[in-house]
Amino acid sequence: MQIITSVVSLMFILDISISAVRIGSFNLHQYGSKKAANVTLTDTVAKIINDFDIAVIQEITDVNIKAPYVLFDALNRVSKTKPYTMTLSERVGRSSSKEQFIFFNRESTSGVKLINYYLYEDAEDYFERPPFIGTFEVTSKGSSGVKYFTIMDVHLRPDSAYQELIDMRRVIRDFIIKYPRYFTDASTSLSQALAQNVIDATDSKKPSLKSNHPILIIGDFNADCSYISAKRQETLRSINFVDFTWMINNEVKTNTRRTCTYDRIFINGDNFVKAIVSRSNTTVDFQSRFGMTLDQALEISDHFPVKFDIKW
């Protein structure tokens, strides 16, 4: 599969120090031509995304692939002196309804650069929408010890969310095989990483991946309420993803109606987790920020963004 494009704005070299970096994820709920044509709505979305140094985006739906560029332009009007780059995935989806993922990165404040990206090659059709995977290099290195990390951007199919989440272990295995250098130079060897990344986990055979290369699974998991029951969530926590830190727990309601925790951030990587600013992992309540009614907020999205802050 070939990625359509990586759009890079002219970046100014700034002599600045990077403080806390904000990484956020936002399902834009059918952001297509109609939403893109609404200037007020698009400008509001841009203002929300501008709070993030790295933004992980789901559900860009424009069949003509113009909407992401409209949003990109609006975002860089908001952030004129510190522009973002945009890395856009190919359109994906089993049905006629297809979507794109985006990584927005404001390099001057994020202290990272995207060094490779791809869509998971889903030959076995495990996913409605194959995850979009990007690896970042930390260019403003601090005391955390984090040099590289990988984000897996997901939008799981609601009625298959449990199985698709379990199948993310296949995506992790594929990444380890595709980029062995991140594991052969780590405390965990390549063979150990593959063995520790248990795919068909059971109570007696749990995954125990422990590497110096952090892996983040971020996005709309549809991981709550009628889609993934509390019992299945506990199985995921205690067995399938026992080696990941769940940064967004059920106390945090991520849908705009504030009833379910659909959006999640899973992290594997002790150094990365330790560098996260305490209590920074939560939602971004744009409804309150902009003084919106519920109906007005739902016009933006039926999801709140989720985020955390980290110090490199």
Fold topology:
Elements: E1 5-7, E2 21-31, H1 33-37, H2 39-49, E3 54-60, H3 67-78, E4 85-88, E5 100-105, H4 107-110, E6 112-119, E7 132-138, E8 148-155, H5 161-166, H6 168-178, H7 181-184, H8 190-196, E9 215-220, H9 230-240, E10 245-246, E11 263-268, H10 270-274, E12 282-283, H11 286-289, H12 294-300, E13 306-310
Parallel strand pairs: 2-3, 8-9
Antiparallel strand pairs: 1-4, 2-13, 3-5, 4-5, 6-7, 7-8, 9-11, 10-11, 12-13
Short description:
It comes from Adineta ricciae (Rotifer). The chain has 312 residues and is an alpha+beta fold.
Question: What tags apply to this protein structure?
Answer:
7-stranded mixed β-sheet; globular
Number of domains: 1
* Biggest sheet features: 7 strands, mixed
Distance between the termini: 33 Å
Structural class: alpha+beta
Radius of gyration: 18 Å
Secondary-structure element string: EEHHEHEEHEEEHHHHEHEEHEHHE
CATH superfamily: Endonuclease/exonuclease/phosphatase
Protein name: Deoxyribonuclease
Disulfide bonds: 225-260
Signal peptide: 1-20
GO molecular function, one term: DNA binding
Please explain how this structure is put together:
Residues 1-20 form the signal peptide. Belongs to the DNase I family. A 7-stranded mixed sheet has the order 1-4-5-3-2-13-12. It contains 12 helices and 13 strands. The protein has one domain (5-9, 22-310): Deoxyribonuclease I, Chain A (4-Layer Sandwich). Helix 2 (39-49) packs across helix 3. Mean pLDDT is 93; it is low at 1-16. By secondary structure, it is α+β, with helices and mostly antiparallel strands.
